[in-house]
Specification:
It is a single chain. The protein has 14 helices and 23 strands. It is globular. The strands form five sheets. Strands 7-8-6-9-10-14 form a six-stranded parallel sheet. Strands 18-19-23-20-21-22 form a six-stranded mixed sheet, with helices on one face. It has a five-stranded parallel sheet with strand order 3-2-1-4-5. By secondary structure, it is α/β, with parallel strands linked by helices. Helix 3 (111-124) packs across helix 8 (269-285).
Length: 444
């Protein structure tokens, strides 16, 4: 990519936009050729740079030859629609410039656990490896493009995939459920962004759900998308009874047991399927199975993913604050296998379908349900109110008090809201902070 003699606009000047500026300057791009665009009028712009800081910061894009857009800005923003041909991103720049081997991972849920395990597997196998992307610091701050490592492990959000021309050695596409529908202007665009990870990959590890829901089709001699686009990669489907699959709690490859479920600390079948994908990636990358097994048996959990908070007054509290879709909340409920007596649900309304979740609540005999706005309007009509005691509230303190009052001794209270947090909390970590605070106060 030619950054010189090019009028460049950095669109969005938070953490990644600032990283992009550092990258351009390290490549000796003339500062007079760089303009910074951001709707935050209080953004701190370094001396010597032109900036446009106001609500209508995208009003005039015609002076620019290249728009380097941060992932938080939707490509479906009206002002960007006529400029798709000159839009790029930090992720796209990296893939166009970097010549080393890359493993890319995306999924609606489960990608952070998967990339962490893959990174640790490669590290313990003695590889020079770096974990980048959605889970860490901006990639152009992390990786020297002129000195390729043995492997890069890249967690790719749908936002990153929208703008990027990928070329992967191994792609992992674990699941696709409706999410970020406003950002992507609907599920079709979100789904296609996720499928984009398969476009130029050599090997792919793909969750069975992607096939079961028709987003990919297995044919006699190829794989195609539902729209007939052929995928050239060598694809491993997981689980698959002729390959990597679960048999009870244990992990198998064909007829060989590769790991006992008793060795795994992560809760739930969904996490065991994540581990199957790690085994598949390890085999493609040439990593010995004993190394993979040790990494997966040593791993506990990432924060806010079915994390045990503690037992207070005979109640077990679990933090699954990262579960912001109905599908991931269902997985958490099933992982706890009949132990949940109280659950906290609701938050920002993204138009999700909660009907299956409501059915699972009834089947699992979850007696107590806390509902937060705004998605409580979608959830409440689906609940069998004769089967549940329901509290609708905007107060985490009131919700925790409800849990202490009504949760059966020895049972579990689960924070797993099946909705994002942004209407009540800054993010899911802030939601967790309030949950932990009031659980620990235990003054009810």
């Amino acid at each position: 990519m030619n950054f010189h003699d090019t009028n460049i606009a950095i669109v969005g000047f938070a953490r990644e936009g600032q990283s992009t500026l550092r990258f351009l300057l390290s490549h000796h791009v003339d500062p007079t050729k760089i303009t910074i665009l951001d709707k935050n009028t209080a953004a701190v712009i370094p001396d010597g740079f032109t900036s446009v800081l106001w609500e209508n910061y995208l009003e005039n894009l015609s002076p620019y030859d290249m728009l380097i857009v941060t992932p938080g800005i939707s490509p479906y923003t009206r002002e960007l629609q006529d400029y798709n041909g000159i839009i790029t991103s930090q992720t796209d720049i990296f893939f166009r410039q970097y010549t080393g081997k890359i493993i890319g991972v995306t999924a609606t849920k489960g990608k952070s656990t998967t990339v962490t395990l893959i990174h640790e597997m490669l590290r313990q196998a003695g590889k020079n490896v770096q974990l980048v992307g959605n889970i860490g610091t901006p990639v152009l701050d992390t990786v020297d493009l002129n000195n390729p490592l043995d492997w890069i492990v890249y967690e790719l959000s749908s936002h990153m995939l929208e703008y990027s021309d990928l070329c992967l050695d191994i792609a992992v596409l674990w699941n696709i459920y409706p999410d970020h529908l406003i950002y992507h202007n609907g599920f079709e665009n979100y789904k296609n962004a996720k499928l984009h990870i398969l476009g130029n990959t050599k090997h792919a590890v793909v969750g069975k759900q992607v096939f079961d829901d028709g987003y990919l089709k297995m044919e006699t001699d190829s794989i195609t998308t539902e729209h007939g686009v052929r995928i050239q990669a060598n694809i491993v489907q997981i689980p698959d009874t002729t390959g990597y699959h679960l048999n009870g709690d244990d992990l198998y490859n064909w007829t060989e047991r590769i790991m006992s479920g008793a060795e795994i600390h992560l809760l739930g079948a969904h996490n065991k399927r994540n581990i199957l994908s790690v085994f598949a990636v390890g085999k493609i990358a040439g990593i010995p199975e004993p190394v993979i097994r040790k990494v997966c048996s040593d791993f506990r959990w990432l924060p806010h993913r079915l994390e045990f908070v503690g037992a207070f007054d005979g109640i077990n509290f679990y933090d699954d604050a990262i579960s912001t879709t109905p599908e991931s909340t269902i997985e958490g409920i099933l992982a706890l296998d009949g132990r949940v007596d109280t659950i906290f649900l609701g938050g920002q309304d993204r138009g999700y379908d909660f009907s299956h979740l409501a059915q699972v609540l009834k089947e699992q005999k979850i007696r107590n349900v806390v509902l937060f706005p705004d998605s409580w309007d979608r959830i409440l009509p689906l609940l069998d109110q004769s089967s549940h005691r329901i509290l609708s509230t905007i107060s985490m303190k009131e919700a925790v008090q409800f849990a202490y009052t009504h949760t059966e001794n020895g049972k579990t209270c689960l924070l797993s809201t099946a909705s994002p947090s942004y209407n009540l909390w800054r993010n899911y970590e802030a939601k967790w902070d309030e949950f932990q605070k009031f659980v620990n106060e235990n003054t009810y």
